[in-house]
Amino acid sequence: MRRLSFTQAVDDALGQAMAADPRIIVFGEDVPLLRRDLLVRFGPERILGTPISESAFLGAGVTAAMAGLRPIVELYMIDFIGVAVDALLNQAAKIETFSGGDWTVPLLVRAPCGGWYGDGGQHEQSLWGWLAHIPGLTVIVPSTPADAGGLMIAALQNDGPTVFCEPKLLSESWLDLLGSGGRTTVHYDIPEEGARGPVPRKWEPIPIGRAVLRRSGGDLSLVSAGVGVHRALEAADALREEGISADVLDLRTISPLDAAGVRETASKTGRLLVVDEDYEGFGLSGEIAAVLAEAGLSVKYGRVCTRVTIPYARALEDRVLPNVARICAGARKLF
Amino acid sequence: MPFDAWALYALMLKSRLFEEAAANLWHDGLISGEMHLGTGEEAIIAGVVSHLGEGDAMALDHRGSAALLMRGVDPVLILRELLGRSDGLCKGMGGHMHLFSRGHLAASSGIVGAGGPAAVGFALAGSRLRPGSVSVAFFGEGTANQGMLMESMNLASAWNLPVIFVCKDDGWSITVRSDKVTGGRLSERARGLGVPPTEADGLDAAAVWKAADAAIGRARAGGGPAFLHFRCVHLEAHFLGFPLLRAVRKPLKEMPGIAGPLVKSLFRPGGAAPGARLSGLKTVLAAILATLRDPRRDSENDPLNRARAALRDDPARLRELEERIRKEMESTLASALAEVPA
To answer: Are A91 and A121 in contact (CB under 8 A)?
Structure first.
């Protein structure tokens, strides 16, 4: 089996899909440089750079998808969706309903997300809960190269608008561009299994809306997505030393949420801790609590999320994001 | 305010030395993420900011250190903020892209184009609360393609607000040549929105000062907004560690990692016909070639050299000035790096 880094895997899967489907085109800021390997394979008609005009090119992506293309619109960072959110909120997400189910929007938005490298509160948000709140949007957050490639294939087969979040900490190319910048003087706490791993030679779709159990334990369920999965795995290792064995459930997609998977692990362990790099209030962690409550499950519940605007200072940032120490402390409270 | 070439050069040199110190701290790993410097745009910032005073406002972009420093914010506080220290300008919470000084009515944003609406709002408040004041927005030419900037120009024009839209045009929208993604001329665009444009050489502090003097004077007197378009060269491109500059400056280190996958992908089965592939390759090579023909190497494109040349008739005074500013910046750096007080 070959091994690829996270973004290599996404681009490799994307290349496979593009070779099979000439309707796929990719555009966004800096795309000719960021996706240069795809540019020299598929040519400038299919890999396009845009002006810094997110509301125009994301909005154009919506109708390009309606009119027969399969556009992949790249945002520099998910934070910048704020400039263009109308295209998703009021257009892409609503067109299938408005058209009485007649017209779908097979648009894929590819957006780097997340922190842990010191870029400040306007460039390190996760926002997947905010987007998943909107009916009609699919939101994907992979945590390994194999999942990233398989979910990219699935996303390109999905008929509706989909946001594909790429945690920058796991992406060697984004982290090089926005973090180290070629320096050897900075170090980041990069989860190895998330940044590089085995991938299939030929990509197959990974079903959207299906979580995967990364670790099996009996006392506690840690439920997370993206980088949080790896922090949860590290916390699970630490907790094992204290005699606590944990399930670690990787959601992989935020919307649709694998509610059955959440209920299953919660029923098994009776204790559930959500680890979410996104904001705490009114988001994924609350949604999971609702899943448990609606099922009438009697479960001890807790959450470790990001509560405030992410501080710029690295030390403060590490404290605010769901770090291993916070996860362990949150877990202990459930016993 | 009379024109003073010495004062302008002093501001520019101070800013340059400050940002060179910041670059060193970044290279040493004391600053973690991105670092966007304003080196190369000092003539523009100095020529505009030197007209500002009490009650005037600034909406800054992601490279706002120079404007704040020239406006009189303590450079020690800015540097500490860049280092993420609790005794920094914003207590280490904002960082270099999000610098704020309430006392100077100066607010930054890392969102491209956000300075447009911000400057309009500052001007609206200024027109009601501080008559005669102006509000300045600094942005790059890539930002001119952001809808909210164009909307802001229209709003400033419709409400006849004292907004000075200052475009620092280095020709690059991050890694994309701006002329490849921009329709028409920016000056005509501004004129079409009712904002009178002025173009001047952004490497020439005196020319900038003059253009800003006219526009700001008119705005203070109730004449409405202005668009100032200046060209410059960013000496460190979009940000430190810019991949194209790295490839050109350290080809042996950087190029193998780029060329290997590129060649593999060029010949990978499945994909476009050879012609389209070559055309893709040409696009990549063109970006590298454009960087190779690096205008940064031409000392004529460094605004400090120009400003300094204008002062060479008095070498003793020049030496004294440079010595003083160098010492000031050394002490700024030492203070910024001193232990955080308990």
So the answer is: no
